[in-house]
Amino acid sequence: MKIKFFAVGGTIDKVYFDALSKYEIGESNILDILKNARVNFKYDISSLLKKDSLDMTNQDRSIILGAVKTDPCDRIIITHGTDTMIETAKVLGIVKNKVIVLTGAMEPAKFKSSDAIFNLGSAVAAVQTLPHGVYLVISGRIFKPDNVRKNRELKQFEEKM
């Protein structure tokens, strides 16, 4: 079994640039997280984009869709910004022969208080056990894209009511 990781940006990969007094998306943290976790599976990591999800366009989603469709791996995890990961998940819904899991973080992975490592680990477990389809794995839960919303106040995802 092999898992393909696509990094497309978002808070999970943000770093603080002191001189600029702001956060910017840096290199993907996936490799460091997997190495530190001493995982025992094959994987490949590709960085497709380095965008805040609020800046994600339809063209960006087409790039992600094309990469997912053409990759030979049938188990895919996408690290994505939380603000628009639901929209991207819905676009990926046309892919029927793969397990696709989107995850992200409310705080950068470099922060001790970040949910990034937990979310990525949950995504790895989910992508190995779920049937073909598209899922969001975040906040300790597995969601389908049509029945989830981001609760900004609580800084978590939840089922739509």
How would you describe the overall organization of this protein?
- By secondary structure, the protein is an alpha/beta fold.
- It has one domain: Rossmann fold (3-Layer(aba) Sandwich), CATH 3.40.50.1170.
- Helices cover 27% and strands 33% of the residues.
- The strands form three sheets. It has a six-stranded mixed beta sheet, sandwiched between helices. A two-stranded antiparallel sheet has the order 2-3.
- A hairpin with a 4-residue loop joins strand 2 and strand 3.
- The longest helix is centred in the C-terminal third of the chain and has 14 residues, at 116-129.
Content-based structural category: alpha/beta
| The CATH H-level homologous superfamily | L-asparaginase, N-terminal domain
* Shape, per Cα inertia axes: globular
What is the CATH-assigned architecture? 3-Layer(aba) Sandwich
User: What Rg is obtained from the alpha carbons, in whole angstroms?
Assistant: 15 Å
CATH topology: Rossmann fold
Number of separate strands: 10
Q: What oligomeric state best describes the polypeptide chains here?
A: single chain
As a percent range, the share of strand residues is 25-35%
Sum this structure up briefly:
The protein is α/β, with parallel strands linked by helices. Helix content is 27%, strand content 33%. The chain is globular and about 40 Å long.
